Amino acid sequence: MKRKERNYNLILGGCLAALMIAFMVVGLFYTPYDPDAMSGPSKFAGPSLQHLFGCDHFGRDIFSRVLTGSGTTFFVAVSTIVIGGGIGTLAGAFTGYFGGWLDEILMRINDAVASFPSILLALVFISILGPGKYNVILALGVIFIPSFARIVRSEFISNKEKDYVKSARLMGASHVRIMFVHILPNVVPTLLSAIAIGFNNAVLAEAGMSYLGIGVQPPDASLGRMLAESQTYLSRAPWCAVFPGLTVILLVLGFGLLSDGLQKGRGSVSCWR
Amino acid sequence: MLEIKHLTISFYDSPVPDVVLSDFSMTMEPGEILGIVGESGSGKTMMALALMGLLKKTARIESGEILWMGKDLLRASEEELRSLRGNEISMIFQEPMTSLNPVLPVGMQVEESLKIHTDMGKEERKKKALEMMKAAELPNPGELYHKYPHQLSGGMRQRVMIASALVLNPRVMIADEPTTALDVTIQAEILKLLQKINREKKTAILFISHDLGVVRKLCDRALVMHQGVTVEQGNIESLFESPKEDYTRKLLSSIPTRETRLRRRKLHE
After folding, report:
1. Beta carbons of B82 and A174 less than 8 Å apart
2. What range(s) does the ABC transmembrane type-1 domain occupy (chain A) (predicted)?
3. Do B83 and A182 touch (CB under 8 A)?
């Protein structure tokens, strides 16, 4: 089981993701300026020591806004994963383990949800519920259920036939215990990489929805909104768009690499399975 | 203690039902070691799984009864069966490589039955598990307790399986080809361990094997099966010394002896 090759994706992705998470966590507690405070004189001020990322068309400090904006994005993405991943894992566990008609019904519903383009489905949700942070979370959460359910279901199907499940049953373990104490830990590596990918998709979806104006509403800062607002001044004050955009890119890149690295790392897990 | 009467099981995966066990009867007394011998596909394992109530969905029990302490297990509820499994009757099987959960520490898996069937505290469970691992002759139980199955050898894993099967001191342990996947020296050690457990804890052992030599060494009584039918049963001595049925005789003649080995060597030269 010697692995000379180092998992650079995992290391790099982990560092980048950790950095971005640290960035967002800081944004929750501290920003150099009030992210919503406008100031006439510093309108369109370029990046300087006072305003690291410059200022936007209202003279608001972009660095502070990126900090809080990515905090919002992070909150939305994590909540989405908790809802989608949680319900998806439960649904996948039950359908995969028991099979039968429950499996058929839930998976057909799953297919129906998954067959809509996600942005369209999100638009439908938002037009029913109205825009706003919590509605975005709800919409994205529901959209994310099918992918998690399918991954977990296939893992449960392949695991439930294994001997260790049989020996757990021989010890008198109940079905629920077998599902969550015995099988679920075996699914965790796959689930982790799915969570990292899902997190990425959630970040992009939130940024996309806010860009379209149906996501996070002003005055809340959001990376997508900042991009939308700054495109009018792109040639005059490019820093308004560059820094929020860069943040999204680094965030997605970090978690993308992390997920890739986790998937590669699974090789060492599966060789003793 | 355990009595199986006229048990017939068929499989319904194909259009024509497949009879895997027909009119099978046996009895088992407390503390004895009963061997079930037969080639693969003779229905040995199906009998054991029927006993545990864990047959596949496609299998159907056509007739017969399984009496445990006078109670018919085929009519027992899932709940009742579950309280029996691991507690009164436990089972270990062939592949120690795959029958342990790869991502849970060994100690936790030995404790599993205690967690399910008793309300012992954490410390108490650990103490009991370590005791059991020691009884299964595992070296360094304290250290092994936190290790994962892939860090253990095949023989050690089978010992862990035995420890986890015996932790609640069941009346019967079904051992389904427990030594087949192990090499010969380890095999002998595991057999000795089973004998010791039988002697010291009075656990009855239902030993399923295709290896006649092993059965002869270990068992008090044996039962020969062929294609789902009991061919012959009886005391181990009489079965080996004076087999009554033709099939038993054929099976016995398949055991390699010094002569057969010489004969084979000659053939190769």
Report:
1. yes
2. 70-259
3. no
